[in-house]
Amino acid sequence: MVKASVTLQISTLPDSPGVYQYYDKDGKLLYVGKAKNLKKRVSSYFTKKFDSNRTRVLVKKIETIKHIVVKTETDALLLENNLIKNYQPRYNIMLKDDKSYPWICIKNERFPRVFPTRRLIKDGSEYYGPYTSMKTVHTLLDLIKGLYPLRTCNYDLAEEKIKAEKYKVCLEFHLGNCAGPCEGLYSEKEYHENIEAIRNIVKGNFKDSLQKFKSQMKQLAADLKFEQAQRVKEKIDILENYQSKSTVVNPKINNVDVFTIISDDSYAYVNFLQLSHGAIIRSHTLEIKKKLDESDEELLQLAIIELRQRFNSLSNEIYVPFEVEVGEDIKVHVPKLGDKKAILDLSERNAKYFRMEKFKQAKIVDPDRHEKRIMAQMKKDLRLSEEPRHIECFDNSNIQGTNPVAACVVFKNGKPSKKDYRKFNIKTVEGPDDFASMEEVVYRRYKRLLAEEQPLPQLIIIDGGKGQLSSALKSLDKLELRGKIAIVGIAKRLEELFYPNDPVPLYLDKKSETLKIIQQLRNEAHRFGITFHRSKRSKQALNTQLETIPGIGEKTVVELLKHFKSTKRIASANFDELSKVVGSSRANKLIAHFNSSN
To answer: Which intervals hold domain GIY-YIG (predicted)?
Structure first.
């Protein structure tokens, strides 16, 4: 039987690629695994029957499940490899060896060599990768060698040795694979231009190389050097047909700590990623309960000190989303672009997922706590005097003034209460007048609630700007409800919230839960109103076309629609088909009507 605490953790796992980690009751890491879908993969451990006794014992020992979310399954594979090699979990047996993934090295030399390697040496060389298969590396190197002549020898091509004619060109030069830098036949400048193009290719950026080769091809063709132009064209074809795009990790990122923070009114969540040689070796998210109105800067500074002490981090460089004061010995970097920014984004994504899981678990364990938090947040964000436990939202729907209708949807404790939804036919307004229509339905709605002594909402939301809001206020004034119910209007274009007698709109954070609930209310009111409007328009169109035929009444129309299903089929039916349903007299009238219409 699965433990209740483990079931709760599984229920809130994301459906994203990543790495999961199993811990026992003492906090000891048992197993590290990768997954394309974390929730499905982890769930399978507790639903399948395993033949292996080893796996059954592992599952029984699991008390805590942690995970790190990444972008792709390939990233998950690489991260799994790093974590297993770093922590050597007892139940991982496949990846404990010293074998590591392959990289492409651009050697730190005067004429750099480009070759595959599994060892990272700190000699100033550049390493691109890691790649999940050596086949990918060889394919990429074959592509590079087909485009650019590079040396493969390991000679020390110092300038004085070349001038002393110490070396002679080898077979690779005669085969056209090398341009002969050992004899000074290939300039250092041109060689490094090719190396820069190779850097772009291994990063997946072929644009510059393609443009360069296309310019060369056009020039050679203009000079009537068609054979050389054809060879360049073949290189262009190779580049355009190559589909793989490499993932670049900068191994120079060494001993770096990454911190990001996500917060709300009650809690802050700080994610910590520890990197070594461009690889993540630890991820941990710290939940901090706010005691006062602390800023994100203050909380992040405290969390950095706490997490570095807890995990004994000795790195002298940290990446953070904004400047913080953590001592003179630590270099603080705020990445804006590139690989460093991507790592910062990954940390923030994990903080967000951790926060969402906490909310989901709270919903399951203590639903009231989640509702209270949402209501308290909405009260603060919307500057209300009480929590909006009961919210009603109004929307008008018409097409050029025809079949005008309105809808009122109701949310209670942040959730739709569909039994309380109401739809309205506009009775007192002629033509397309949204303002007058809004005034009518708001008046009718609350006049009835007052008459029936039903509870009033704490908040009314009007789908529209200042005009619709002013119209709704007229109705509240007539009913003497102004000031007793909070009311706001939401404009669709910029999601602006308008308040009575306030010319300056309120803009909520696009990611805030308050705005999401208001948008859900607005969208639900729009959907409900449009559905009612379409239904009314369709019925009117049918009734108008059939009931205007002399001698055809409502009962006849119902019989015809039951049998033929649509007006189009009735119009195309012959006399015999119609007379079987409504008799010969009415059949003649129908045929005469549709013939005259055609």
So the answer is: 15-93
